[in-house]
Automatic annotation (TrEMBL):
Location of this chain's protein in the cell: Membrane
Organism listed in the record: Subdoligranulum variabile DSM 15176
Keyword line: ATP-binding, Membrane, Nucleotide-binding, Transmembrane, Transmembrane helix, Transport
Residues annotated as domain FHA: 27-76, 141-190
GO molecular function: ATP binding; ATP hydrolysis activity; ATPase-coupled transmembrane transporter activity
Protein's UniProt name: ABC transporter, ATP-binding protein
Lineage, broadest ranks: Bacteria, Bacillati, Bacillota, Clostridia, Eubacteriales
Membrane topology designation: Multi-pass membrane protein
Amino acid sequence: MASEIVFLITEQRNKQRITLPSDRGAYRFGRSAQCEYVLRRNNVGDRQFTIACADGQWTITDDSSDCNTWYNNRYLTAGETCALQPGDVIGLNTDGDAATQEITFRVEEIRTVQGSVEGPRQEQTDAAVLREVDIRRKKRVLIGRGDDCDIKLVSDRVSRHHCEVVYRDGQFEVRDLGSTNGTYVDGVRISRTALRSGAVINVPTQVFAFTGGLLHYHEHKSGISVQLLNVYKTVQDRNTGKPLNIVDGTSLEIEPNSFVVLVGGSGTGKSSLLTCITGTDPCTAGSVRFDGLETRGNRNAFDAVLGYVPQRDIMHDNLTVEQSLTFTAKLRIAHDASKAEIAAAVAHAIEAVDLTGREKTLISQLSGGQKKRVSIAMELLASPRLLILDEPTSGLSPDLDRSMMELCRKLSHQNCTVLMVTHNMSNINLCDKIAFLGVGGVLCYYGPPENLHSYFDVELTSDIFEKLRVPELVEQYRCQYFTTPEFNRLAAAWPEAAQEADKRCDQSN
Ligand SMILES: Nc1ncnc2c1ncn2[C@@H]1O[C@H](COP(=O)(O)OP(=O)(O)OP(=O)(O)O)[C@@H](O)[C@H]1O
């Protein structure tokens, strides 16, 4: 009988579940690229430990000669094997302090499964629930925001009856039902088309994968994840005529419903990286994924999940907040929305940006910070699952900067994933992660704000900007990033991200 073991891996604030099926042999954990689960950390051996299953019994074996593996309440001796059961904890003390375990692997569950199961799986924590609908059995699956739909999507961008997937005479077909914002199959807007196995269907805020007569989808609570894998933007240098990387091999993962701030000195490629993510000027190499799905070729469809707040506010001064938002709502919300639905969406957006009580105020009478909130509310009308803000706090007073950061934090935890570009570091502790770029478009740090100063070994944030102007230091921090938990979690899920690390940096250092 096959079985699988579920580990909850905890490292700093990050949590991740992995499921290892028993019929795939042993799973090696360690620094080496040959391991099934690569852990590029200090004080981790090339092969640290192995998890395996024989005769229904899961075990851990310590493989490392010089770095110890913690098991429940003691260290294993080199080569020792122990049986695993739910509740057991494996720990690694990557900072070298024997008293603390920086990464823990807790056995959550060992379960028997029928037949064979597919390879190691990453499981999202709390972000999404995987659903599937059997089209052959139902014959017709109606998708939309109406109460009578088989798959009901809660977004004003989705039409009441948006599209349907039907099965007739052995054929599967998807038909758009005259929706406002479109149905896409493999990145192309369709009115009706036959479905092949493996097709990807997009409607606003939702992606479906169609295989073997089943429609699979993640029922999202709100924000999406973004994966950047070896992302490059190469341009022709206007001075030398030679190729120049202005985004230079960036790999990182933005977790669902997190608030990430992108910082870096002037000209370090922040805007260029943003345009790779928004797709307005796509990357020249590498991959940008939303919820793990490649966005290249699917750009139109993925636009639906994106909200972009530009640096300059674009609104009519002589309209009130409510008029302005109602005007935008009529353009963005599905055309079959009733007046009451539009009014509710506007009220919801106003409340989300804490402007309740200002509905009747003219835009011209708002402060800079309030205007920015209206710009954000305009994007929220479209229920984005990723909100990108380009320097929303530039030109604002310090107290407004704080309230803007607090708003972004709130939105990220309630509505969507938030990515913000900023120069202002004073309230940076309010974000979940900082992506710090150095000269030449190199990602030098990606991690929580509380580790920033120790990582760069500085007391003042301004010293980081100084350091990241020096190309040699930038290269040093590029490689240091490849040893961090954030990068290793990404590389474990997307091994191609490690290729760049292996190419750029000698991992034995
Ligand atoms: N064709 C080109 N030739 C040479 N350099 C270029 C070319 N195109 C862009 N660059 C450089 O690429 C870098 C990245 O620009 P980008 O606008 O993305 O940086 P940024 O971090 O957003 O800057 P800022 O904070 O000043 O807005 C800049 O240094 C820019 O001068």
